Amino acid sequence: xxxxxxxxxxxxxxxxxxxxxxxxxxxxxxxxxxxxxxxxxxxxxxxxxxxxxxxxxxxxxxxxxxxxxxxxxxxxxxxxxxxxxxxxxxxxxxxxxxxxxxxxxxxxxxxxxxxxxxxxxxxxxxxxxxxxxxxxxxxxxxxxxxxxxxxxxxxxxxxxxxxxxxxxxxxxxxxxxxxxxxxxxxxxxxxxxxxxxxxxxxxxxxxxxxxxxxxxxxxxxxxxxxxxxxxxxxxxxxxxxxxxxxxxxxxxxxxxxxxxxxxxxxxxxxxxxxxxxxxxxxxxxxxxxxxxxxxxxxxxxxxxxxxxxxxxxxxxxxxxxxxxxxxxxxxxxxxxxxxxxxxxxxxxxxxxxxxxxxxxxxxxxxxxxxxxxxxxxxxxxxxxxxxxxxxxxxxxxxxxxxxxxxxxxxxxxxxxxxxxxxxxxxxxxxxxxxxxxxxxxxxxxxxxxxxxxxxxxxxxxxxxxxxxxxxxxxxxxxxxxxxxxxxxxxxxxxxxxxxxxxxxxxxxxxxxxxxxxxxxxxxxxxxxxxxxxxxxxxxxxxxxxxxxxxxxxxxxxxxxxxxxxxxxxxxxxxxxxxxxxxxxxxxxxxxxxxxxxxxxxxxxxxxxxxxxxxxxxxxxxxxxxxxxxxxxxxxxxxxxxxxxxxxxxxxxxxxxxxxxxxxxxxxxxxxxxxxxxxxxxxxxxxxxxxxxxxxxxxxxxxxxxxxxxxxxxxxxxxxxxxxxxxxxxxxxxxxxxxxxxxxxxxxxxxxxxxxxxxxxxxxxxxxxxxxxxxxxxxxxxxxxxxxxxxxxxxxxxxxxxxxxxxxxxxxxxxxxxxxxxxxxxxxxxxxxxxxxxxxxxxxxxxxxxxxxxxxxxxxxxxxxxxxxxxxxxxxxxxxxxxxxxxxxxxxxxxxxxxxxxxxxxxxxxxxxxxxxxxxxxxxxxxxxxxxxxxxxxxxxxxxxxxxxxxxxxxxxxxxxxxxxxxxxxxxxxxxxxxxxxxxxxxxxxxxxxxxxxxxxxxxxxxxxxxxxxxxxxxxxxxxxxxxxxxxxxxxxxxxxxxxxxxxxxxxxxxxxxxxxxxxxxxxxxxxxxxxxxxxxxxxxxxxxxxxxxxxxxxxxxxxxxxxxxxxxxxxxxxxxxxxxxxxxxxxxxxxxxxxxxxxxxxxxxxxxxxxxxxxxxxxxxxxxxxxxxxxxxxxxxxxxxxxxxxxxxxxxxxxxxxxxxxxxxxxxxxxxxxxxxxxxxxxxxxxxxxxxxxxxxxxxxxxxxxxxxxxxxxxxxx
Length: 1262
Description:
Elements: H1 2-6, H2 16-52, H3 54-140, H4 144-151, H5 158-171, E1 176-179, E2 187-190, H6 191-200, H7 204-209, H8 218-229, H9 236-240, H10 244-372, H11 379-392, H12 412-419, E3 423-427, H13 433-440, E4 445-449, H14 455-465, E5 468-472, E6 490-493, E7 496-501, E8 504-507, E9 513-517, H15 527-530, E10 533-537, H16 542-557, H17 559-592, H18 599-634, H19 637-651, H20 664-680, H21 687-693, H22 707-719, H23 723-728, H24 750-753, E11 760-764, H25 771-781, E12 783-786, E13 789-792, E14 795-799, H26 809-814, E15 817-821, H27 828-843, E16 852-858, E17 871-875, H28 883-890, H29 893-900, H30 904-923, H31 927-930, H32 939-955, H33 961-972, H34 980-994, H35 999-1005, H36 1015-1023, H37 1030-1033, H38 1037-1058, H39 1089-1104, H40 1108-1119, E18 1125-1127, H41 1134-1149, E19 1156-1161, E20 1173-1176, E21 1179-1181, E22 1184-1186, E23 1191-1193, E24 1201-1203, E25 1207-1213, E26 1222-1227, E27 1234-1240, H42 1246-1252, E28 1255-1257
Parallel strand pairs: 3-9, 3-10, 4-5, 5-9, 11-16, 11-17, 14-15, 15-16, 18-20, 19-27, 26-28
Antiparallel strand pairs: 1-2, 6-7, 7-8, 12-13, 19-25, 20-25, 21-24, 21-28, 22-23, 26-27
Helix pairs in contact: 2-10, 2-17, 3-10, 4-6, 5-6, 5-8, 5-10, 8-10, 10-18, 16-17, 16-19, 16-20, 17-18, 28-36, 30-32, 30-34, 32-33, 39-40, 39-41
């Protein structure tokens, strides 16, 4: 609660919501820190406990060794005896094995011989088989029709008959006996009848296929061969002519004959094969008997061998156990001895952890303060507040954020990000957040643009996968698509963690991290969004800038030492990391091991000692190298300070305009470029050479600034003032000329300072620069190569609202230019589209070199994020004379119109029109001295005036001044003036420039007019003109000097704001706001009219509780018996007093109110004149009043106004009698309108005083 109550003392707004976040963060950090400390304590304690019990474990190992050694001796003796018996049995087995082997050889030889005979027989028979199978296959082709045809033949041809007879003989079918009347005895043998029966059998083909060809008798074969095969008619070709079926039978008969021939040759061999197989059978029977005998002997030997193996294995086990005991004893002894030194270190670590555990709540409290209340502050400011809180809380021990980290972090921002309970939002990162987060996440960072359409899906996947995700370029003030992921609640179900998103359950990985970054300040985001994140202002400190500068510089000053230092630093970090890992592994192993006998522990300890020695050697070498670098650095300290100061100046430019944002990376790149150009010219990078170039390293930034800011920047960059000196410098003593002007970048120089891959943001004041027309003219003058032809460059113009619809690919390839207007109006959706477009351009290969992309950006409080990827160029019309005139006559529309005019008189009027515009615009810089009410006159008005003049010149042969006034000047300029006095001044200025007003003033501007008014003549003439710009406004020199001093004071205030010394803003008076403290007059008051006016104003002040000083003064007036003088600077409406005077006079004279007027004078009236009222507190602007001569005259010294003693005012009847004196007017405070004519004497015409802006104010301008 004390912290919550103390925060407002340091300018920190502490709300109940922020206090709750602070409490939660404190609890979160405290719990996590205590767990981390206790975990380390547990490891060290377990390690020490293992060391304490080491000797007891050594005794246990010794007892085990004493028990195993006698058993080993017994097993060794039994094993030797069994080995002798096994040797004897082995001899018997070998003898039996030789006999069996001999029998096996004989049996194998007989079997081989029998197999050879069998193979030869089968091979010879196999030669006949194909023909037989072919014949059988031929029979397969017969169908029932063929067989039917064959068997129905009553008188078959001789060849068919012979075939059937042969088939019947082979099948063993007997012939039929039929009566033959031609033969003696009356009967004969006929196979055809038998053949027809055989053919009628449905199994006929099966009998042919399965015919037993091996058992055909020799007699049958002899009959077939002698009686059939020898005949010519028994030929397949002859038979085929009669019957296809008979042809197949013929082929089968021949195949049987062929097979039989081969079988006669094979028969002896088959007989011999039978005898060989009988011999093999007897040999195998004998062999089997011998094998059984061998098996019995072998089994007996195997039993002995198994016994021997078991005893040998037991012996080996005993040996291994004894050896293991000895090794474990040896390792334990070595480990205990080696850890003797570690024990002292671990005791010290435990003591430190105990102390840290005691102070943990205190450290965590300050860390929670830094994270929740001070995260958006600079480290220096944050530490100052923490030190102040320590004093208030009476905490003596210093604190910094490194105290809550186990590992050293190079920045406090990294510590806040790492320990934040909520999602970190890195503000104004300029791309510098990515390297830091990449280091924190060990390179597993996934970078996603906020414009990526897949963002929500990527984050969802990252929650389950445990990814570290950085969402860059956040632009929406309330990014609704991010909000659900800022307050995810983790719950456990079935031993697994989950989160609920959109009503769905997602698995949660505790390694998930979400980071947000933006290039915008925190004020651009909605408070509802900021309450759910930890905003971190990512501004590099002076130390970081100086360190980065030296890292850049040392690479050029001592490159060898720099490379060596980087190499050694990386080696030191690597070794330190390995030592820490080794120590953690060693402690974990000691904590988990049951005994100190693990060889890995000794290896880890040995490796740790080796790494420690290596790190010490590396650290010593690194310190030596760093000392050499530091000695070299001392010579460059002034250079580093100078460049760092310049960088701080550039980064402070955002106080002048939010658009002026330049990343540290970009500024360092400019410095490197300048260094590279120095060394490339062969010069040595010594301190003097670098000091010479350091002021000019950042001159290129000037093209990104407007003129008024460019002057500040150039002055600060080359003034060599320190921050402290800038805060204390006496700005009034400085010569204004010290802030020399630097010219703005001309539009025509754009192609030379940009390239095709760099987008260009053209920064313009609101409505002050004709960018579109200028770029279009410039583009058409550029020629590009397209297919070896020179073509004109085209400027494609689009609104930023249409960026998503633009087809960019054809423009990229053609080399044309594309321009997006109103880029400052881009919504978040348009911004995402622009960033996608720029990314596409960046990744496009072979981009046409002539291509350019431009964005027109009007001044805006919150610049778009994509501007950081652009070359920022500020464009403005020259505000100084005669550059203003030269610009319009050289590049602007004036040159186009002048070329179209037919007479020099019209060109003269065109020239005078430009002069008038410049004078009106310049007069706006002089506040109330220039115009009573501010008017906004810029390039838009001039362009309108030029267009109207061009139209008028095309229809009028000769343009009169009256025609020019009514058709051009009054339309453009007088329409913007709503003050009567300003309208009179404007009318005189028009006459002055076009027809003249008086000799005195006309002679001042006469040198401005050339003899001829063509553009080239005008430009040539202006080069020789030496006329100060204030003369064109008609103002006095003192006014110019006064406002230059005011500008210098404003500059001083801006510089002090840039460097943290904010003062009240100095304002030049331009009229009071009558709406402030509006007075209501609704009270009825008695007394004369003047008293009534004063009483009403007093009553109004009292009701509104305003202006105590005025109330006091008004009461004093009312207490007077007669009111003869009034300090009008202390009343709100002097015009009411004047009206009261007129009304009282009209009532006395019995005339109407309109017949009465009030006039004033500065000289004292004579006693004989009527009664006057004295107006006190009036101020005369633009001139001075000389009481001796009773005339107004030019200003003297440095004053721009004169406080008048009084103005004599009286009411009188209106008259038409002219007055020889000139009239100046008295102006009211609220409306700034003229309320009273004041007659004065002057030897100079009244038009001169109107140009001077001479008038009287009823108040003192501030």
